[in-house]
Specification:
Blueprint (H helix, E strand, L loop, with lengths): L1 E4 H6 L1 H9 L4 E5 L2 E6 L10 H14 L7 H8 L2
Parallel strand pairs: 1-2
Antiparallel strand pairs: 2-3
Length: about 80
């Protein structure tokens, strides 16, 4: 798996996409940290809907909006 800087990826995207089309996986980095991965769709991880639902349930159990009136949430969203 090759790593490419963000600027280089921007300037050579067509070539990178051709390589990905041939089956390669390429990491795109920014200041040495991977920020994206280009990979063929066949390699993309298929997610199980049941796992996604369970992850949402866990998230909701940890992040509640108790004590905040609906009207206030709507007003905050409009700002």
């Amino acid at each position: 798996m090759q790593s490419v800087g963000a600027y280089e990826a921007k300037t050579t995207l067509s070539k990178l996409l051709e390589r990905v089309h041939k089956g390669e996986t390429i990491n795109i980095t920014k200041h040495g940290v991977t920020v994206a991965v280009l990979q063929p769709p066949s390699m993309a991880r298929k997610s199980d809907p049941r796992q996604a639902v369970e992850a949402l349930r866990q998230f909701r159990s940890k992040h509640t909006l108790k004590g905040i009136p609906l009207k206030k949430m709507i007003e905050e969203g409009r700002r």
